[in-house]
Design a protein that fits this description.
The complex is a heterodimer of chains A (884) and B (57). With 884 residues, chain A is α+β, with helices and mostly antiparallel strands. In chain A, 47% of the residues lie in helices and 17% in strands. In chain A, the strands form six sheets. A seven-stranded mixed β-sheet of chain A has the order 17-29-28-27-18-25-26, with helices on both faces.
Chain lengths: 884, 57
């Protein structure tokens, strides 16, 4: 859907930026009033004028193109050029024949695609209408000009061509794939382009003498795809892919052996009832023995290995009883096959190995390559910086390639690429993501800035002191890794049950051996003990937990809860302590208008001026205007307001001329109190005060009720915030007024202090959960038993956290807690079923009424029961309201 | 009935051949990306256009 995205280097009018904004907001479209017209290229229903952080701000455009002073006029002119007349529709829709476009960018892409004869794109796109996460950032193809510096590996092919793998942003469906792969003949020198959907990458084979990857990137940018260096996640992906292949490999082998062993088993059982020639029986037994032996020796090997590790480390593992069963079964069956007496269980053993291998694979998929993932989100490989050389020329480089002492230009709306000192200009920085501080920080020449914070108002130049890796972010990243390494692994339910299981079976085996050797002699005794040990193999026990967890994870994803770590789900079943971050978690971290004392009609003009700014205050004022007038009326009327001479003054406010009147929105000369920087904004028209806005942090919707629900489930709540403003206490007060008492409330904590506090609270012995949104929570997220990340105001969302909640409100957390409890109960039920089967068969084996046929029948039945129970387990409760 | 002594190993050998083919597919990475291929199959080769990317430049 989100195809109207273009590369930042393409010089664009402000409308393009709005498309970008609209595209980035598309998944939230339901919040807006839908209009009837769809863009023929990107398919967006409506234009969203809300301000989002984007790589290129209006300001930056204006600087690049001094001619663009009156942005509104420019937009109108652009429209007139495009179709000869102003379109009557609301906002920026344009008509070309019978097609509608939301902007020039989409129209350009549409006509380009038609020129190239690739119209199929639109037909294909409708086949798969997937919604995808908005791409955080548009990359400049500049980076790809120097491939070595960008860290792109170039493989020289035999015939003089080169091969590179690049990351693609903006892939959504079959149409994207097809469009990109259809491009090579239209671009000289490009031999082939192969998209890989699973990791959003693109393999290019090109002739280096005729083209270069950055040309391809520039070209693709015109279609709305951004190419960049393929981040080293690829390396991890490779081991991941290798492991997955290995799993499949052994499942295939186990399946082959099990299927054949079962046929042989069937002939043997049939022969037993109808009569069979003894030489045939012996032959079949030997073939079966061979297959079963292969199954335990090759695909079954890992169970012995992990059982051995478990015995050596003393950590119980369900593989111990599994391996015992396999071992005893194999040996006794081999003896049986050799002597022609006693039972052979090869068919059961082979199918057991198959089931266990499948279970192992499911577990592998639900598992979390812990540590790596949280650290991954702190990687700032893709941050780009504009380096200023001595002669004043600018080059775009990757942040990691910056060196201390270098001069960097940081434009408004862009992430600061390194730790350093401001050398020229002044601006405001949003550091909430790094420190949790909710107020923008004013910086002047000589002030130090932290890499990863966001430049809000105007361009500054800075001297690099430390690169991101060595700076604050790198430090936090190291702590995250340490914290993850320190975590005590959860002993899974299955393993705990498995430990008890081992002892019970061992006891029963001794009992059986003792009883039968006394009453019927040792031969009978050995036979029955062996069949007991073989049959008691808790296959379903090993399968149940991973199955239930996998199913729950799948359902959670539909609820916009992404669980990467299956263990987390198990840990949430018992109530403990839940620590919440404030900025970005309890609040959105951005501002909201509480109160406006001036005339309503003025709001439209104010909003029009503020549309030109990226400042959080501006966003709050625009949103306020929209909510006061209603989105539809607002969008219709805002266009007729003509604005000129917009100028921002860092730390003071914004000027603009609307309908001939000069409006200033900002602070009076002396702020009331320094901590209240953005709490009050006044408006002057032609030097005359017209009204005041009171601003506050916007709190997450339904916050109190969600927290109450969490508390009702037995959890204690605490606030751990990096913000040391009175806001923390205000929120705590507001919560206790709403009936949610807090166990603890701390403000002004640095990331490492958060972790320490968490550790102190954890000493009380309960499960600790950390809920946070930013880098400043990352360490605590990793250190807590369960880390839950929520979608905060920042674009760099922590999607790689063990659990990520994609919804705007926190109601997902109580649902998650319920789901976790349900999942653990479902696991218990599966265990009960599995143990029941085991009790039955073990009872039969002890009394001597066992036969391999019973084992062969019971084994799959217990597996199937567990499978059905796992699937039918209702982990996520039905929601009353529709998901909107 | 002694045909069993030939038929059974033969059947297993045939099955094993299938297994090895499957293992080869897994090893060569054919199952690594199941998403793109399912999209790619929807795409018709356009007549006269990009029959072979190398041929057209």
């Amino acid at each position: 859907m989100l195809l109207g995205r273009l590369d930042a280097k393409v010089p664009l009018g402000p409308t393009m930026k709005e498309t970008l904004t609209a595209a980035s907001r598309a998944p939230d479209r339901s919040e807006q009033n839908p209009t009837k017209v769809l863009c023929a290229h990107c398919g967006l229903e409506t234009l969203v004028r809300g301000k989002e952080t984007w790589g290129l701000s209006t300001k930056a455009i204006a600087e690049e193109d001094p001619a663009v002073e009156n942005l509104a006029a420019h937009r109108l002119a652009g429209r007139a050029v495009q179709d000869g007349s102003l379109s009557p529709g609301p906002s920026d829709r344009q008509e070309s024949a019978s097609k509608f476009f939301c902007c020039q960018g989409c129209m350009g892409a549409y006509s380009l695609i038609h020129q190239l004869g690739l119209e199929n794109f639109y037909a294909l796109r409708s086949l798969s209408d997937q919604e995808s996460e908005p791409v955080s950032k548009v990359r400049a193809s500049e980076i790809l000009k120097d491939l070595t510096q960008a860290g792109v590996q170039v493989d020289a092919m035999g015939d003089g061509t080169c091969r590179v793998r690049l990351g693609v942003e903006g892939l959504h469906c079959a149409a994207c794939c097809w469009l990109i792969e259809s491009l090579p003949p239209t671009l000289p020198g490009l031999r082939s382009a192969q998209v890989r959907f699973s990791d959003q990458s693109l393999e290019l084979i090109y002739d280096p003498s005729r083209t270069a990857p950055f040309r391809v990137a520039e070209y693709l940018a015109r279609f709305g795809y951004a190419l960049g260096p393929w981040s080293p996640e690829g390396a991890e992906d490779q081991t991941d892919g290798r492991l997955r292949r290995e799993h499949w490999f052994w499942i295939a082998v186990a399946f082959f052996l099990a299927a054949n062993a079962m046929w042989i088993g069937i002939s043997l059982y049939a022969g037993e009832s109808t009569g069979i020639a003894s030489e045939h029986e012996r032959f079949l037994r030997w073939v079966g023995a061979l297959l079963g032996l292969l199954a335990t020796v090759f695909p079954g090997r890992i169970f012995f290995r992990s059982a051995w590790q478990s015995l050596r480390s003393g950590i119980p593992h369900v593989d111990v009883p599994v391996a015992t069963g396999l071992l005893v079964g194999t040996i006794s069956s081999l003896v049986g096959a050799a002597t022609g007496r006693g039972h052979v269980y090869f068919d059961s053993l082979a199918s057991l190995v198959l089931l266990l291998r499948v279970g192992r694979y499911i577990q592998f998929r639900a598992q979390y390559r812990s540590g790596v993932s949280i650290a991954k989100l702190l990687r700032f490989h893709d941050i780009e910086a504009i380096r200023l050389s001595e002669d004043g020329s600018r080059t775009v480089v990757l942040a990691k390639n910056l060196r201390p002492g270098e001069q960097v230009e940081v434009r408004a709306g862009v992430t600061v690429p390194a730790d350093g000192v401001v050398s020229s200009g002044q601006s405001e920085l949003q550091t909430a993501f790094i420190t949790g501080e909710s107020r923008p920080q004013r910086v002047r020449v000589g002030d130090s800035v932290i890499g990863g914070s966001l430049n809000l108002s105007s361009t500054i130049e800075m001297t690099v002191e430390r690169t991101v890796q060595e700076g604050r972010l790198g430090q936090i990243s190291d702590w995250v890794q340490e914290a993850t390494a320190d975590r005590t692994p959860l002993i899974q339910l299955a393993d705990r049950v498995g430990r008890v299981f081992v002892w019970v079976i061992l006891g029963l085996a001794i009992l059986t051996a003792g009883f039968w050797s006394v009453s019927r002699g040792w031969e009978v005794s050995v036979e029955r003990t062996v069949s007991l040990l073989t049959i008691a193999c808790p296959c379903a026990l090993a399968l149940a937990a991973p199955l239930v967890i996998t199913v729950a994870i799948g359902r959670a994803a539909k609820e916009k809860i992404w669980i990467r770590d299956g263990n987390s789900l198990e840990r949430l079943a018992r109530p403990g302590l839940m620590c919440l971050d404030k900025t970005g978690t309890l609040t959105f971290g951005d501002l909201r208008v509480i109160d406006w004392s001036g005339p309503k009609e003025l709001l439209m003009r104010i909003a029009r001026i503020e549309l030109e700014s990226e400042h959080p205050v501006a966003r709050a004022l625009v949103d306020y205007g929209r909510s006061e007038f209603g989105a539809e009326e607002f969008d219709r009327r805002i266009d007729s307001v003509r604005v000129s001479q917009v100028r921002q003054e860092a730390g003071r406010g914004i000027y603009g001329r609307v309908d001939g009147r000069l409006i200033f929105i900002g602070r009076s000369e002396t702020p009331i109190a320094p901590s209240d920087t953005f709490r009050e904004v006044a408006v002057w028209v032609d030097g005359e005060a017209q009204g005041k806005f009171r601003l506050g942090e916007s709190i997450r919707p339904n916050l109190v009720s969600s927290l109450r629900q969490i508390r009702d489930r037995g959890w204690k709540l605490a606030i751990l915030s990096g913000d040391d403003s009175p806001q923390v206490q205000q929120i705590a007060d507001a919560l206790s007024a709403g009936g949610v008492e807090l166990f603890a409330c701390h403000g002004g904590l640095s990331p490492e202090e958060k972790m320490q506090r968490l550790g102190e609270l954890r000493r009380e012995g309960t499960t600790t959960v950390m809920v946070g949104d930013g880098v400043n929570d990352a360490v605590a997220l990793a250190a807590a038993d369960v880390g839950i990340a929520v979608r905060g105001p920042c674009e760099l969302a922590m999607k790689n956290a063990p659990i990520f909640i994609g919804e705007r409100h926190l109601e997902a957390i109580p649902r998650l807690l319920d789901a976790s409890r349900n999942a653990v109960r479902a696991i218990h039920r599966c265990f009960a079923a599995s143990l029941l089967y085991n009790a039955l068969t073990v009872g039969l084996a002890m009394t001597g009424y066992i036969h391999p046929l019973i084992a062969a029948i019971f084994m799959p039945i217990s597996g199937i029961t567990v499978l059905t129970m796992a699937w039918s387990a209702r982990t996520f409760p039905q929601r009353l309201e529709k998901n909107s | 009935m002694s045909v069993l002594f030939i038929a059974l190993p033969l059947a297993i050998l045939l099955g094993a051949a299938g297994l090895f083919a499957c293992l080869y597919c897994i090893r060569s990475g054919q199952y690594d990306d199941l998403d793109s291929e399912s999209y790619r199959i929807l795409v018709d080769q356009q007549p006269g256009k990009s029959e072979s990317p190398e041929g057209q430049e």
